[in-house]
Predict the structure.
Amino acid sequence: MSDKDAMQDMSREWNYHPELPLRDSSIFHWPPRPGHLLRWVGRNWLTLSERVMMVGLAVLLWLFVYPSLETAQSFALGWIAQVWVANLLLIFASAGGLHWFFYMRKGQGKKLKFERRDQGKNNKLWDFSDQVKDNMFWSLGSGVLQLTGFQVVTMWLMANGYTPVITFAEAPVWFIAFLMILPMWSAFHFYWVHRLLHQPFLYKRVHALHHRDVNIGPWSGFSMHPVEHFIYLTTLCIHWVVASHPIHLFFHIVFQGPGAAMTHTGYEDLLIRDKRRLALGTFYHQLHHRYYECNYGNQEMPWDRWFGTFHDGSTDATDETRARKKRMYSKG
């Protein structure tokens, strides 16, 4: 089969996909590519990108929503409940808002939607026989509870001086740099815990719950088994050892929680007047949900390429992924 025929076959399997094979968009190259790195910084941090919007939301949460560190010096039901309610509303607004726009209002139709299918219903694969209700149950239940737990413990550690806390005035360069580092740290952490969750023992008992959603939607992102929520959210423990500000913690909270809804919309971008205005999901991760044993990380980081788990969207990569899965489970 020629490359052209292979790409035509791939196109018939999807409602939409970007140009294939996927290019290497990682910011890590040797020799270094300064131009590529500068374009990445500009695209992510010097425009109204999803990351800049998340930082803005983190600042608002720090100023007006979450309790102060002074309040968090001792555990008390009042401020802990305040954090839980805020997180519940954050997840509900982000996942629910995106689901309403893309899947209820159908505000973008199927433009830039990867899968042709709609969300699953009347199938006992999911709790309540409904994909969306199943996803909401796990996201708003275990997800919000554990996100709140990690946040509460971290705020208490910060408030009592058990972990280093900085201000912008004390360390302006590190303050800004750490905001940029946190998504990279999250991607590094996610790749390795994700590979752990795909080991047959944990996959069958834990991670399979998340992978019930092959055709993902906004509520899929934070829908996980309680054990997976705990493993996934250990990324927040970096604030226990690295000097940070509450804004860094709240940005990280938004990135891991509402951010997961954005990356699992099932659409590549939000269109406004037919122009791409906000990056959402990636075909890179959509391939993971269809073929499982590939693309454990994200496309900005090189881990999948370096460790042989990269799927570039080609039929050859699909064959390699299926063979890898067969080898894994023959050992399990």
